[in-house]
Design a protein that fits this description.
Layout: H1 3-13, H2 24-33, E1 35-39, E2 44-46, E3 54-60, E4 63-69, E5 74-81, E6 86-87, H3 89-94, E7 101-104, E8 108-114, H4 115-120, H5 123-151
Length: 152
């Protein structure tokens, strides 16, 4: 990746809340271990029930979250996510199977990093990155708790 491309991707990363605490130097360091990938409309970013330990941050575009309905034997759209959404953190941290599919609803750009690559990051960058995942998961849990309380 050349310098101009790195600078372009740093600007794109900075649009997502997940990357706000990182300096430009840290973002450049992250890009050594990850990639920014473009997905076409209807292209799968991840598939339900597959084993893959990759974490994603949606930088630009929209994606649909799809679950298989085994009773009706069909796929059901359960959510649509926009820029800044984090995906795949449970499978990445738990070495587990994907519990949903993610499909690009429009042309989308995604930050993508595999768990093994995170292990090779400098310790300071790695700790900051994992902390950001933890904060993101805590915020999701807080939102889900509020939604559950409203439903009761």
């Amino acid at each position: 990746m050349d310098t101009a491309e790195i600078e372009k991707y740093i600007l794109l990363l900075k649009t997502a809340a997940f990357f706000k605490p990182f300096t430009n130097g840290e973002l450049a360091e992250l890009l050594k271990y990850a990639e920014v990938k473009k997905y076409s409309i209807q292209e799968y970013i991840m598939k339900e029930e597959t084993d893959e330990c990759t974490f994603f941050v949606l930088l630009k575009g929209k994606v649909n979250v799809i679950k298989d309905d085994p009773v009706k034997k069909r796929k059901v759209k359960i959510a649509q996510l926009g820029p800044g959404a984090c995906m795949g953190e449970m499978a990445m941290l738990l070495d587990g199977r994907r519990n949903a599919s993610i499909v690009a609803a429009v042309e989308s750009y995604v930050f993508k990093v595999h768990a093994k690559e995170v292990e090779y990051m400098p310790l300071e960058t790695q700790l900051k990155f994992i902390r950001r995942i933890a904060v993101n998961m805590a915020l999701k849990l807080k939102d889900q708790s509020a939604t559950l309380i409203e439903a009761l």
